[in-house]
Structure formats: C-alpha cells, structure tokens
Design goal:
By secondary structure, this protein is of the alpha/beta class. It has one domain: 3-Layer(aba) Sandwich (Rossmann fold), CATH 3.40.50. The chain has nine helices and seven strands; from the N terminus they run ααααβααβαβαβββαβ. Strands 1-3-2-4-5-6-7 form a seven-stranded mixed β-sheet, sandwiched between helices. Helix 4 packs parallel to helix 7 and helix 7 packs across helix 9. The chain is globular, with a radius of gyration of 20 Å.
C-alpha cells in the first residue's frame, strides 16, 4: 500500500485541523516550506496586533446606523499593549452627558486584532441587527485602543441595558483575524469577567456571520428576559444546526489579555 497516509501518518490529521502537526525536518531544522509558512503566519499575527482600524471606513460600512468614535485612556498602540488597564477605560471627555435609555449598545473595539475588526465586524453587526427588530439600539460606539471592559462603561453612559462588544481577538499562528463577541447585562464599570457571555472564533475558517448572529441574538434576548448574563445564563438553545467544522466556542469569561 502506497497511500499518502501510509507514507505520511500525519496527513489525515492535517486535513482536520489548521494546527501545525507532523511538520517533519530537514536535518536538524524544519523543512524550508514549513519554516517560511511559519514566518509568514507570525508576521501576519504581529501585523494584526500592531495594526490600526480604519474606523471612518467601518462607520461607512454600517451606515445608516449612527456611530460615535470614542478613544480609551491609552493614547497610542504602544501604551495600549503595555497598559491593559488604560484600554479598559473610555476617555470621559467623549462620553455623552445626557443619554436616552436603550435596550442594546453595540461597541466595536479594535482589541488585539485590527484585521478581525476590519474584515468581520460590519458584516456581523448587519447580520445581528437584521434579527433584532423591536429593540432600541444606542448609537454604535467605535472604540479606539479599547478592550472588552471598555464596552461596559460606554454602554452605561448611553443608558443601555445590555452591552454587546465586538472585538478583535488575540491572533494565533493559524488565524490572525478572529472576531469575538462579549455580552454583558446591566453594564457598568467594574463588571467581572464571569458576568459576560462570549462567542468566539468568528472568521472565514471558523464560525460564520449568520450562525454567530443567531447565537448572539439568542443570548441578547435571554439576557434581557432573565435580566442576567455570564455564568448564570446557560446556553441551551438548539445546537443541532451548528456544524462541527464551524469552530463554535462559547465561554463565560474574558479571553486572556483582551
């Protein structure tokens, strides 16, 4: 038998994952092709972390929704990466003083992958809002140098019952542009990670916009109905429609470092 699997026992595993397994070697090093692919993936991950979102273009993509660009207390990308605490707080000078009451405030933060936000945030926002008829939506906040907790204080300032944060996740060597969603009921400064629900791995080779939007809207409706989120909000929606290959993962805590 001379099948590919017989020659390369790792071939069948590679067909099932984007992880780097069984790369082989050339002498005491990686084969040149694998080494170059690794270096390219590493460069893309670094670019995603250090890149910047074109928020003006993003605002145009989600028009006619009203948008507000609000920076965090981190003045630039270097400080943002070194001081996570500053990225969690919005600049108070940009917050509204007298906001109306709303059901939901969408907050789109650059997080740790500008590419994820630029590539996926607008499409996911549109897919979600198509399913949210009947709810009052605050202006969409575009958070510059912002982390997950940034959304809590911002949503509270806009008088929202629920914060929905779309954010670029920390890039890996297989996916540099994965988008995450964090949902928090009764948002305010100081919320714990256990009080959020998370939908992760939204990207071209992961969870689709439509399935992610279904998950998001189910969580939003249940959070508003039960008046809670996080570990107390159990996901028991019908899961049969989710293909295993879509890479769905839901967590009740914040991804480390976001």
């Amino acid at each position: 038998m001379n099948s590919t699997i017989d020659i390369d026992p790792f071939a069948r595993f590679r067909r099932a994952t984007r992880a780097r397994i069984g790369l082989g070697r050339a002498g005491d090093a990686l084969p040149l092709k694998d080494l170059l692919e690794f270096q390219l993936a590493h460069a893309r991950a670094r670019d995603a972390v250090h890149g910047s979102v074109d928020f003006e273009a993003l605002a145009a993509q989600i028009a006619p929704a009203e948008t507000r660009i609000i920076p965090s207390l981190a003045p630039d990308r270097t400080v943002y990466l070194r001081r996570p605490d500053l990225g969690r707080r919005p600049d108070p000078a940009f917050l509204p003083k007298n906001a109306s009451q709303h059901d939901i405030c969408f907050v789109i933060c650059d997080g740790l992958s500008a590419a994820a936000v630029q590539n996926h945030a607008a499409a996911l926002y549109r897919a979600a809002t198509r399913r949210l008829g009947g709810f009052s939506l605050a202006p969409v906040v575009l958070g510059r140098q912002a982390r997950v907790a940034f959304g809590d204080e911002v949503a509270a300032a806009f008088g929202a019952k629920l914060a929905v944060v779309l954010i670029g996740e920390r890039p890996g060597l297989s996916v540099p542009d994965s988008l995450g969603v964090y949902i928090t009921f009764a948002p305010c400064a100081g919320k714990r990670d256990s009080e959020r629900n998370c939908i992760s791995n939204i990207h071209a080779d992961g969870l689709s916009y439509e399935i992610a939007a279904d998950r998001l809207v189910w969580l939003v409706r249940e959070a508003l109905r039960l008046k809670l989120s996080g570990v107390n909000l159990k996901e028991n929606a019908e899961m049969g429609s989710l293909p295993e290959s879509d890479g769905f993962m839901s967590e009740n805590n914040e991804l480390s470092g976001i």
